[in-house]
Specification:
By secondary structure, this protein is an alpha+beta fold. It contains 21 helices and 25 strands. It starts with a helix and ends in a 32-residue tail after the last helix.
């Protein structure tokens, strides 16, 4: 019986054994499949994770290229700086307290930094398999002093603290030419995504304005890296080549140097000439090439501060300044040109044969049309074109403006002279200005029934540089340079060449003519003669600041704008003061435009600034050019009247 029972159980045991064997086989098959998946299918990915946990990559930042002036003086360079990084896991509260003392952190700043570390801004990350990879050090402080660096490295036991040397942008001349050079700050997350394939990394600095932005691709260079194997204590271990695919190191490539057309000396005395005004701009350029020698906008800013760690207080101070120090007044702002526009009106009338130089107009102090009275600043009596420009007689130009089609003529010839569109410099969001036409005013009427549409009074305002006409300082400087050189409208140039770090010229940029003016040489000669008279004729609006040894030609302007209240309860005059001209008149070398916001009369405020710039230029930069032949004043029939005493106000609106 017992044997029979055992025999009956054998099939059941065999059946169960087969089931068990099948289960074991399936389990081992699953394990084998999983191993195959991990080691073969996902082997490379897990190898990279494992490698990342023991491989530390040191970034080797590229040295940014220098920005230099035309004589090789360094305007922007890099200097060594020292940044403090900490490993959050290793930094204790006691260690942070000692570090805070060394770095001189105040209470609030220290609390913010400690909270950032404790919140794990760069905490140890976990892979999908649960493995923990090496944590990234956190940047604790930038550009620390050499004393603090020495204390950390030699005198204070601070585990988890590391000092890393990094190049830092430096501007040796401080605020000099700040708007031209621009500044830098950290790349944003959005920009990083957009420039993913261009080698940018989080934390990189990019140019924000000026040359730093426009030529960023030439200046930035290419960062390098070096990979090393470390243990869990961040100590270097074995050779890396056995576990890393691809190169284990890449040498950083320095950026190229950009050489500007600016002259440091000219830039310095141009900015110094603006020392007594609150808000102004000035441009100086070479008449025979269009190369910019100086471009100043006041107030300015310190690019060292802007490119460094700009504090919230400093940022708020800059943004709250009513004179807008971050705004480039030479390029990114437009102004009414006032009487500096009158040469354009004269050229338009001469070219379309509306007048001859000898045609005369009687000025009784005002001009009346359609029951409206347009004033002149005084009674000029009988004037021709020369007198009208020299004495800035509005009535003469009002009569031109009243002629049919004059506004469209101004737009046509103004555009030919470079107004109404950007010059092509492409810096700091350059504005194009505006030249109104009759159709533009009619379009305003169609869009807004309450608008006036085109009225003859608008043409009278336009002919003296008011109304809706807007220009930039650079446009006016290039315009007067074209008048001075006989009709070449240059493309203004700010970069002369690009050099490699070892000084090899990679690209050189020759001056380029934007176009030859479609203006008769005789018309330009007539206007040039009158511009000489503005400064050297006894009745000229700039006569009282004339130079005895340099013959200067130019035009003053007083552009009417609304005034504004000051912080101390006062009120600033509404008029902007202009002077645009060139020198020496007989053989022009430089053209310049000066504007002082709310300065008052151009002859009283802007002209003296311009004369100071001109004298300094020919005294220090180009003394050989000051002895140019004089263009001289036109001959008059009969004896010349005695020179009157200079007036305190020029004859302009």
């Amino acid at each position: 019986m017992e044997i029979a029972g055992q025999d009956a159980e054998l099939p059941e045991i065999r059946r169960r054994s087969r089931y068990f064997a099948l289960v074991v086989l399936v389990a081992f098959g699953g394990i084998a499949g999983r191993l195959f998946y991990l080691q073969v299918v996902q082997g490379d990915a897990f190898f990279r994770v494992t490698s990342d946990s023991i491989i530390h990559t040191d970034l080797l930042p590229a040295v940014r290229g220098q920005i230099r002036d035309r004589k090789g003086k360094v305007l922007a360079t890099v200097r060594p700086s020292y940044n403090v990084f900490v490993t959050p896991r290793l930094l204790t509260a006691d260690g942070f307290a000692r570090l805070r003392t060394v770095l001189g952190m105040n209470g609030d700043e220290a609390m913010d930094v400690w909270e950032r570390i404790q919140n794990g801004e760069a905490v140890t990350a976990q892979t999908s398999s649960g493995a923990r990879v090496a944590e990234r050090p956190v940047l604790l402080a930038e550009d620390i002093s050499r004393e603090a660096m020495a204390a950390i490295e030699t005198g204070v036991d601070l585990p988890g603290v590391k000092i890393v040397s990094a190049p830092r942008r430096s501007y040796p001349y401080g605020i000099l030419a700040a708007h031209v050079l621009g500044f830098m700050n950290e790349i944003s997350a959005e920009e990083l995504r957009a420039k993913k394939g261009e080698g940018y990394r989080a934390g990189d600095l990019v140019g924000r304005t000026g040359i730093e932005r426009q030529w960023d691709g030439y200046l930035r260079g290419r960062a390098g890296f070096q990979k090393i194997v470390v243990d869990r204590r961040d100590l270097p271990k074995t050779d890396i080549h056995d576990i890393v695919d691809g190169p284990s190191a890449q040498v950083a490539i320095a950026g190229n140097n950009v050489v500007l057309t600016l002259d440091v000396d000219t830039q310095r005395f141009t900015e110094r000439a603006l020392r007594n005004v609150s808000a102004a701009g000035a441009v100086v350029l070479d008449v025979d090439s269009g190369r910019i020698l100086a471009m100043a906008s006041k107030p300015s800013f310190d690019p060292n501060e802007m490119s460094g760690h700009l504090t919230p207080e400093a940022e708020q101070r800059l943004l709250a300044d009513r004179y807008h120090p971050l705004h480039d007044k030479t390029l990114a702002e437009t102004y009414y040109p006032g009487s500096t526009f009158k040469p354009v009106s004269a050229i338009a009338a001469l070219e379309d044969r509306l007048i001859t130089p000898d045609d005369k107009t009687k000025c009784h102090g005002s001009f009346e049309i359609a029951r409206r009275r347009f004033k002149c600043t005084k009674t000029h009596l009988t004037v021709n074109l020369y007198d009208a420009i020299v004495q800035s007689c509005n009535v003469y130009f009002y009569e031109l403006g009243a002629r049919p089609g004059m506004m469209d003529r101004l737009a046509k010839y103004g555009a030919d002279l470079g107004l109404g569109a950007p010059t092509g410099l492409g810096l700091n969001g350059e504005e194009g200005g505006f030249l109104p036409t009759e159709d533009w005013y009619r379009a305003q009427k169609r869009e807004n029934p309450k608008a006036e549409g085109f009225q003859i009074g608008q043409a009278l305002n336009a002919v003296i540089g008011q109304g809706s006409t807007r220009v930039t300082l650079l446009q006016m400087a290039t315009l007067y340079a074209a008048i001075a050189n006989g009709g070449k409208l240059w493309l203004p140039q700010i970069v002369e060449r690009v050099e490699s770090p070892d000084g090899q010229v990679l690209e050189a940029f020759a001056p380029r003519v934007r176009r030859e003016l479609s203006v008769a040489p005789e018309s330009l000669a007539i206007v040039r003669q009158a511009l000489v008279g503005v400064v050297n004729e006894p009745k000229g609006t700039a006569f009282k600041v004339r130079s005895k040894d340099i013959e200067v030609a130019g035009k003053t302007g007083t552009a009417q704008v609304h005034g504004r209240h000051t912080e101390n309860g006062g009120y600033e005059a509404g008029d902007h003061a202009w002077f645009v001209g060139f020198a020496p008149a007989g053989r022009p070398r430089i053209a310049l435009a000066v504007l002082v916001e709310h300065g008052g009369h151009g002859g009283d405020v802007a002209a003296p600034v311009a004369m100071e710039i001109i004298h300094n230029y020919f005294d220090t930069v180009a003394p050989a050019d000051r002895e140019a032949p004089r263009l001289g004043l036109p001959r008059r029939h009969g004896p010349r009247a005695p020179a009157p005493e200079p007036t305190t106000a020029e004859a302009e609106p």
